[in-house]
Amino acid sequence: MHPIISALKHHKTAVILMVLEIALTCAIVSNAIFIIGNRLAAMHVQTGVVDNELVWARSSGLDQGASAASATSRAQADLAALRSMPGVTSAVMVNSLPLSNMNAWGACVQRRPGHTKDLVCNVILYAGTQGTVKTLGIKLVQGRDFLPQEYVNYFPFDDMQAPPAVIVTRSLADRLWPGKDPLGQPLFLGDKARDVTHVVGVVGHLVNPRINKYNGVERNLLLPVTAAAVRGGMYVLRTAPGARDATLRDLPKVLDGVDSRRIITERHSYAQTVKDYFHDDRALIWLLLVVIGCLLALSALGVVGLSSFWVQQRTHQIGIRRAIGATRRDIMLYFQIENLLIVGAGIALGSLCAVVLSLFLMKHYELPRLPLGYLPIGALVLWALGQLAVLGPALRAAAVPPVVATRSV
Questions:
Q1: For residue 88, how far is the Cα from the chain centroid?
Q2: Which helix (H) or strand (E) holds 197?
Q3: Pairing mode, if any, of strands 186-189 and 105-110?
Q4: Domain end: 232, 262, 292, which one?
Q5: Residue 321: which domain range?
Q6: pLDDT tens readout for residues 140-196
Q7: d(Cα 263, Cα 60) in Å, to the nearest integer?
Q8: Which of 262, 289, 322 is the last residue of a domain?
């Protein structure tokens, strides 16, 4: 080990530059691998609805200037036509869908009026017409679905009486009533806790229309409302297996048959909606993979270039070592250990830089803290890369014949 360290001391500048390159690569690769893993986990989140069986559409002018009775009558006619389509098992109106990234109603709720510590804000309100739970395939882990008489014309931002019942997610229930049974509990809606309702069911899992630090992932509840209350909402159809694409194709024609003056502004399969929601995440993953590949390639080229240069410089020394009994394996092991020391120093410095970079990303880009378990992953990748990169120069060094020691240099 001492001869290796002594040799490295004679090439301080090259060693320092190589260590810094490895450290930078280690810091970036460790954080990039963590971000990729984090994004992939988010992309595989379960929405809480039957993704592959749903089709949805929105049309313009459904309730503009219309009375509640007129809007309800028109929506009922549309829903009746949609339910009659071949392959459609049910159809409802909702204000939004999980991961749809649009039309999310947010509100404050509290379990006791006048107690600010019981106030929970940025709660998402899902509003749907009769049959929403069944149509979306929402799974209740406690309680029951809404009763027909519980559907009311309610809009949270108008002076209207709240529905008598709500269904909450397990996440919200644990936040409001930790350790208690939420069924039957009163829930007050709005900043002033003007409207009171009661919990009749609990959903095990239902994702928000948007996932962010303000609304969280599943902090939401479901309201039973009439079609007139779902302003600017969407028609959602549940289809039989194999009928989704045909339903999506024929949907505009069916709605035009009810009112040809309307404009279908959007229509998608829900699976495509979820895919579109994670478009930016997929782009980021590919970008990070390219960055990781480029950094690892540059590091490998640096190791190969530096090791090749040293082999060329030390040809006479290698010949002398071979002449006094060093085997090819000894020469290869020398260069591999030398590379291991350089890469190890770079990894030690890079691990510290990785933590600092993670703190910077947490502060400025709302990313979670880098788990320390990712540092060994980055270290193993770089150690393996370093050993592979030095293998070629080490083999060339091992092939130097002892006769080189007798030549003048």
A1: 31
A2: strand 195-203
A3: antiparallel
A4: 262
A5: 2-43+279-406
A6: 999 999 999 999 988 877 767 789 999 999 999 999 999 999 999 999 886 566 778
A7: 5
A8: 262
